[in-house]
Amino acid sequence: MSTLSLAVRDSSTMLRRNLLHARRYPSLTLNLLLTPVMLLLLFVYIFGDVMSAGMGGADRAAYVAYLVPGLLLMTIGSTVIGTAVSVSNDMSEGIIARFRTMAIHRPSVLVGHVVGSVLQSVASVVLVGAVGVAIGFRSTDATALEWLAAFGLLVLFATALTWIAVGMGLVSPNAEAASNNALPLIFLPLISSTFVPVAQMPGWFQPIAEYQPFTPAIETLRGLLLGTEIGHNGWLAVAWCAGLAVLGYVWSTRTFAKDPK
């Protein structure tokens, strides 16, 4: 069997393993999924009128359209925390030591986690998007090409954050530490343009919200789904995704390659 065939076979096996774990123990994914859903409902039905009035007098429907794209990306950040916890559990429970003694393609262990997490992220985004549609979100101005680009951005963003989460899981001594280390993936969307435009934030805070990976990705997704201008945010979002993916991949593979002491 060629090296490529071995890698594909073992990666597929590890993917099935991780999907089975997610199916048998769905509580972690569901708990993480509740955060963006609850924020969506909270900001639409409790703060919606106030927030929309502060954004130039727009009605609640306009604020729903503004809010949903940001929460879709926040959903990805929430979902991949489960990946960090899962990787940390594998490292601490001894299964990785068993895998190291077997004649398998070693990177397939990480590939299985990454592909499984991306699939879970896409499924979570679909569920949160369905809630958004149920409460009034509409994307009538987006073309088929823009929908395809939006899906590609979501997959690319999920892949980048998943590799970062895998690295966090590998360096964490236990599941609790992995969950805590991955909290910035939920915190960063809260200080981005998810809820209000960057221009309406205090001047000293605007650079914090603008120069981070979530804001250009949110603005790009918002432009694609609503048919509005994207400007320079498109290439910034792709650059952030590519940089984070490479960083996470190098960090994860090098950490995983080290033999345990």
TrEMBL record:
Q: What is its main location?
A: membrane
Where the record annotates domain ABC transmembrane type-2, the positions are: 27-259
Membrane-related topology note: Multi-pass membrane protein
Q: Name one Pfam family in it.
A: ABC2_membrane
Asked whether the keyword Cell membrane is assigned, the reply is yes
Query: Can you say what this protein is called?
Result: Transport permease protein
The text of the family note is: Belongs to the ABC-2 integral membrane protein family.
Q: Which residues cross the membrane?
A: 25-46, 66-88, 109-135, 147-171, 183-205, 234-252
Q: Where in the cell is it found?
A: Cell membrane; Membrane
Key words of the record? Antibiotic resistance, Cell membrane, Membrane, Transmembrane, Transmembrane helix, Transport
Q: InterPro entries of this UniProt entry?
A: ABC2_TM (IPR013525), ABC2_TM_bact-type (IPR047817), ABC_2_transport (IPR000412), Nod_factor_ABC_transporter (IPR051784)
